[in-house]
Amino acid sequence: MPSAAAAHVVNNGAAALVLVATALAAGKETVISRGEMVEIGDGFRLPDLLVSTGARLRSTSGSAARRPVTCPGRSPSTSAPPRCR
């Protein structure tokens, strides 16, 4: 059996999102597409979950365009690179 110093087990994607955002994005800017700002059941909205972790949200357009772009507007305080297409 493999050994681990620590582990977290969650039973849904929202819980995993909260754990990751708390660890990596607290106090930082997080880029999210407007198309991903959805309600996931029982009134939980993904933007509200992310904000509850201390992340600052920055929305991008939810355009269906699929051409490469240079991701303008990324600042040093952004917690992760945006998903550019």
TrEMBL record:
Keywords: Pyridoxal phosphate. InterPro entries: PyrdxlP-dep_Trfase_major, SelA-like. It comes from the Bacteria. The keyword S-adenosyl-L-methionine does not apply. The keyword Chloroplast does not apply. Residues 57-85 are annotated as: Disordered. Its cofactor is pyridoxal 5'-phosphate. It holds the Pfam family SelA. Belongs to the SelA family. This is Uncharacterized protein. It comes from Streptomyces violaceusniger.
